[in-house]
Amino acid sequence: MNTLSELFDNFNRLRVLIIGDVMVDAYVWGRATRLSPEAPVPVVHVARTENRLGGAANVALNVQALGATPLLCAVIGTDAGGDQLLQLLREHDLSAAGIIRSAARPTTVKQRILAHDQQLLRIDSEVETDLDATETTPLLAAYDELLARADVVIFEDYDKGVLSAAVIEQCLARARQRGIPTVVDPKKKNFLAYRHCTLFKPNLKELREGLKLEFGAPDADRAGFEAAVARLREELTPEIVLVTLSEHGVFAQQDAVKTYLPAHVRSISDVSGAGDTVISIAALCVALGQPAAFTAALANLGGGLVCEQVGVVPVEKQRLLREAEAAGL
To answer: Regarding beta strands 109-115 and 118-125, do their DSSP bridges make them parallel or antiparallel, or are they unpaired?
Structure first.
C-alpha cells in the first residue's frame, strides 16, 4: 500500500463485526434558574432532548464513518429503550440483523441532565448480570452468521453482561478458526479472558485494574508501566498491545518493538467516545495488516480529533486523512 489515500479507500471494502454492549446515550438540555422547594436541587426547564447511539453502537458509527460496513451483534431489552435503539440504528442506516431482544433484561440507557453547559446528573438504567443460556444461544448464532462475512472482529466490553467469559472464549476461538483478526476494548470484569486476541487496547486505568497492579504513567514510571505490559503480554499473548494514555498519548508494542507517541495538542472539549474512535481505527488497520506503530499513530490522531467536539461523535474520515497526511504518517 503506497499512500494514505489508498489505505483510506481500502477501508471502504472492509466488514467489521462488533460484538458487545450497546446502549442509548440520552441527553436533556435545559436551564436551571432556581432551586426546588422540595429538595436542595436545581429545577431544570427542558429546552431539548436527544437520543444517541452509545457503547458498541457508537463504535459501529465510527466504523461506518470511516467507510467500512459495521455488523453489530448485541442483546437489548424488549422495552422502550430497545425500541429507541432500533429506531436510531434505522436512522443511521445500520443493520439490526445481529441484535437479539430479551424480556429478561433492560436496554442500557444513560440519561444525562445538562444545564448551562454543565452535567448536573446522570441516570443509568441497566443491569450488569451475564446473559443466561436463552440469551447466549441466539447471540452466538447471530455472531456465527455475521462472522462468515467479517474481515475483523471488535469486542466492545462495557461490563454490562453481553461479553461473559464463556462468550468471549467461544467468539475468539471461532474467529481464530476462520483466521479473522480480533481487537479488544476491555473492561475490568473479564480483562484476562481475552487470550490470544490480535490487538488488546486498554487505557491506563483499565491496565492497572485488570492486572491488579500499581504503577505510574510511563513519563513518571516507565519501568513499572513496561513491567505491567510485559505481564499482560504473558497472560494474554496478544500480537499487539495498544495502551491509550490520555494526555500522555499512546503506547504500542508488537513483538519486541515498543512505540511511544505523544498526545496531539488539541482544544479539548469532551473526551467521551475517544476510545470508541481509537478501537475503530485500530481494527481497520489490523484488518489491512498495518504495523503496530502506524496503527497506534493513526488511532491516536483520530482519538484526539473527536475530543474537540462536545458529546459522543464519530470521527470525520476526510479530516482524519488530511491531518494524517499533514503529520507525515
So the answer is: antiparallel
